[in-house]
Design a protein that fits this description.
By secondary structure, the chain is of the alpha+beta class. It has twelve helices and eight strands. The strands form two sheets. The chain has a five-stranded antiparallel β-sheet with strand order 3-2-5-6-8, with no helix packed on it. The two termini are 36 Å apart.
Length: 410
């Protein structure tokens, strides 16, 4: 930091010198001109004195000539002062401008506020590691997880510069990001861990789970590839098989989904809502019987008249359910669709769960959210539109609910 300030002062001094040099030269020339004019006036006064003594001019003529010479000299000095004031003003303004610009560039390039946050997170690294990893603290806040992830990411980058690779650290970082629903950073961290240890089953499983949770088709297709790689290494991994069933259903590959569903269905409780949901989607009319009743909501989404003009021409509509009795924001079910005309109706059930272990039927009361997103990401962002409602969850029923989008996120 000291080196930076020394360089900044040196550069500022050089800038001021370049700006000032032409004005200093001009000021020197002006001083020389004033001195020359003064010598000329004195010479002329001596000549007037001699001319009077020789009788060439009268005393009145001499007095008038002297008066005119003095007035001319005063005018010359006033002009010199005015000219010298202008460069002074320019130098002062230029110096202040250079200082402001330099400080602004430094602030922007170094992101002082971000550095302060990073330093604070680094100072808390040991404490947060204890509360989050070693002895999980139920009072931990999302901001604490963000600080821990920030400090851990910085340490991992520092280790890389020193030639050290830490797959476990990158996997932990990915799981931290996953817990606060930062899916892009989650996948990047798991990918980094895989470049270090391509066959790490823990990383493969975590990456497969994250890809399944994103909900978009491209991620689901990649999840199938990742989970197949995991099963080639660990053929008895039932959790990977269950996630592969979900990803295969979402990508429309029902034959593969049924193959792996057959391997895991007997290992789940018969009343497990996830088992029921998957069976309904894979075998909607098994043995000629009606499918088991679903649990969820049929949501009619509309928008407040005051916000209609703010609807973007191309956007994505997310409708999801959260646990209304918890501070956790993990969705129990999500439906993602292109935004069409409103009102529209969306079916939200256990079949739309992002994780096999967290579904609508496990909630007592759901917070229903409809959000218009411009980046195809369910995470909240400034400028997006949303509406909310709450409803009781009735097992085995799809209840009718409505949401009015009436809020702009600022």
């Amino acid at each position: 930091m000291l080196v930076f300030w020394l360089l900044a002062v040196a550069m500022l001094a050089a800038l001021l010198l370049v700006v000032a040099l032409p004005w200093l030269r001009q000021g020197g020339r002006q001083s020389q001109d004033v001195m020359s004019n003064t010598q000329i006036v004195r010479q002329r006064l001596d000549e007037l004195e001699k001319e009077q003594q020789q009788g060439l001019i009268s005393a009145e003529d001499k007095a008038q000539a002297i008066k005119e010479l003095k007035l001319a000299l005063v005018d010359e000095q006033n002009n010199a002062r005015a000219a010298s004031t202008s460069p002074s003003l320019v130098l002062t303004s230029g110096g202040l401008l250079a200082l402001i610009v330099g400080a602004g560039v430094y602030w922007y390039s170094n992101q002082l506020e971000g550095l302060a946050t990073l330093h604070n997170a680094q100072d808390r690294l040991t404490e947060l590691s204890e509360r989050i990893v070693m002895n999980p603290d139920p009072s931990i806040q999302p901001s604490d997880i963000q600080d821990f992830a920030l400090a851990l990411r910085k340490r991992l980058h520092d280790d890389e510069r020193q030639g050290r690779q830490d797959a476990t650290g990158w996997m932990l970082l990915g799981r931290l990001y996953l817990s606060v629903r930062q899916m892009e950073q989650t996948i990047q961290a798991f990918d980094k861990a895989l470049t270090i240890q391509p066959n790490n089953t823990g990383v493969l499983g975590s990456l497969g789970q994250a890809l399944v949770m994103t909900g978009d088709k491209a991620s689901q297709r990649r999840a199938v590839t990742v989970l197949n790689t995991l099963l080639n290494i660990d053929p008895e991994n039932d959790n990977a098989k269950l996630m592969l069933v979900v990803a295969s259903v979402e990508t429309g590959n029902l034959d593969v989904a049924r193959q792996y569903f057959a391997q895991v269905k007997d290992k789940l409780p018969a009343s497990d809502p996830m088992l029921v949901s998957l069976r309904n989607r894979l075998y909607p009319d098994e043995n000629g019987n009606a499918a088991s009743p679903q649990t969820g909501f049929e949501v009619v989404v509309d928008i407040d008249a005051t916000l209609k003009e703010k609807l973007p021409p191309q956007a994505t509509l997310f409708v999801f359910a959260q646990d209304a009795m918890s501070e956790a924001r993990m969705p129990a079910a999500v439906v993602k669709t292109a935004l069409g005309s409103l009102p529209t109706t969306v079916l939200l059930t256990d079949a739309d769960a992002m994780m096999p272990t967290f579904r609508v039927s496990q909630l007592q009361r759901a917070r229903l959210v409809a959000r218009v997103s411009m980046d195809q990401n369910v995470d909240i962002a400034t400028g997006e539109l949303q509406g909310m409602a709450e409803a009781e969850v009735i097992i085995g029923e799809v209840s009718q609910q409505s949401i009015t989008i009436n809020e702009e996120i600022l």
